## 1
Amino acid sequence: MYIDDSYELYKKLKSLKLLQESPSFWWPHYGSFEVVLGVILTQSTSWKNVEKSLVNLRVNDLLSLEGMSTCNLDVLMLHITPSGYYRNKAKYIKLLTQNIIETFGDFETFCTEVSREWLLAQKGVGQESADSILCYACKRCEMVVDSYTQKLLNALGYEFESYDELKYWCENIHSYFSDEELPKVYAEFHGMIVEYMKRYSSRKAIEIVF
DNA sequence: GGCCAGGTGTAAA
DNA sequence: TTTACACATGGC
């Protein structure tokens, strides 16, 4: 099957009913501070391992901006050990949360005022993490693309030079939706791509559905 | 036992 | 500006 544009891909994935009907728009606790932590923790790491870390942080009452920014670094490393790269990730989380408080004061202000450039200037936050935070924590109008997106579109015959090129191809669906529904559409679009690839591409079978 | 996961920073070419 | 490598755990 040939896919003309991102809207067709979106509709196709939508018809597969890959996401559970829930108000969370794929990322658990969409729109909350917890998403920021998940974004860092899940870098090159399975979500199962991230959940272990999030449980550790939750039972120790550390799932807040203040809790994270003031937490002892060694304690933080211990809690997030299951997610791998724990030394780097602990440092990045601590710095990021401290900078959020220093620059924006609280999470709500952060969500409305933070820019992509500000996020990209933070250690441990690359393009995908910046967009993930904007899309899933701040409910902004930013599409996340990742290696799954890349692989899927390559399999469908597309080639992209850069992250941005791929992102803009995906964001082309914007003309089919209102500004109000767009953040959720992007959130769900990326979520559907990930779920699709996890299910069908694990070996070689992209053609199963397309 | 090897490979991969909801990537990023850094150093060297 | 690109490429190579380090960072690390747990599931399959």
## 2
Amino acid sequence: MLAPQLKFDIEKQTGLMRAGVIHTPHGDIQTPAFVGAATRATVKALTHAQMRELGSQAILANTYHLILAPGPALIAQAGGLAAFTGWNGPTFTDSGGFQMLSLTDAKIDHDGVTFKSHINGDKIRMNPEISMQAQWQIGADIHMAFDQAIDSTDKNLVRQAMERTHNWLPRNIREHQHLAAAAQAAGQPAQFLYAVVQGGLFEDLRRQSAELMAAQPVDGFGIGSLYTTETEATANIIKLTNEILPQDKPRHLLGMGSEPRDLFIGAQYGCDTFDCVAPTRQARNGALYTPNGRVNIKNARFRHQFTPVDPDCDCYLCQYFTAAYLHHLFKVDEITGKTLASIHNERFVVRTTDRIRASILNDSFEDYKSAFLAQYYAN
RNA sequence: GCUGGGAUAGCGAAGUGGUCAAACGCAUCAGACUGUAAAUCUGCCGGCUUCGGCCUUCGUAGGUUCGACUCCUACUCCCAGCA
């Protein structure tokens, strides 16, 4: 019995760039799409209703965090992530690999990693099998293979992380196939696996990694460990990676989207989905995206601005509230301010990605890109 | 009226002879944030500055001392207790 494949239709392709639809068991994702970061099974400060209203199509939760609480078994009991959260739409999980980079207390070895819980000091052991099992219990539509994320310019370290990721890949796949077969036999919905390309900013390592990944029996690909501000180098890496990866499977650019130009770069060079914590994190800290660049709503100049943050924005914040009001909410630290700012930023990236999609479909991507970037980065 | 205690930068509060433009917290003013240990973190925070310093400050006015936010005197105001 062959496990079902993740269905991905490409509607239009221009060079590496494409617009398509990913069909998940919980609904379709029109791509390119921005996926909301819901690390602990919620997009911070936002309800699912708000996420839907601003046009979000999918969310991404984190296996490591859900292992800590409430535990994968409980989410399985609840019927899986989509049901547990009430989101009832397409979902992704990250594998826990990023926490090898983001958490200082992570001891990495050949088999996996041991985290020391920041909550109570518990040892949390993760490896490909544990991550796959946890992700199957959590039950997102799309899983990431357990990899090692790294942010370094030291080629030896980057190579080491890449080789570790490569060594872990067959274990991810084997465990995933095993769990997929069991689920299929039990009549449960399918879940899908993306393999993650590593190699930092080194072209030869990226090629090597992409070539290995391209040959795997997986449903799609993640592109990991790109955190640099060196835009051109990043663009080049994404491009050469996607030239190697098979065209008919979706690619997810992991964690990139702190800067709107990341979305353009990603889409232009063949990525279909993106996730990033920046829109919501920065929103909570008062940084709002506008077509003319980022603004800090806490700045004194907004105290008396009785017009919207962005008069042309169609989000709930800009439709109903002034910048002066949001400024006030931030100054007195009311939670509503964080919510409104998060709606605005999330809407901004979702809308921008939607427009990128539209521009691909009607052959105006270059025009849209240059106009957007010229305005956003004018100063 | 008496007896104690106290007055330090926007606020609160350390400092009790020199290393004090003055700890620390808050506020102010800015900055950062890329598969979220992030409602977090950083800088600034008397004035001027060629960023090396220079100048003016610790209720007010005097005094002691080489040197005072720190000791003495008087005054002003605040607080507590007693009348």
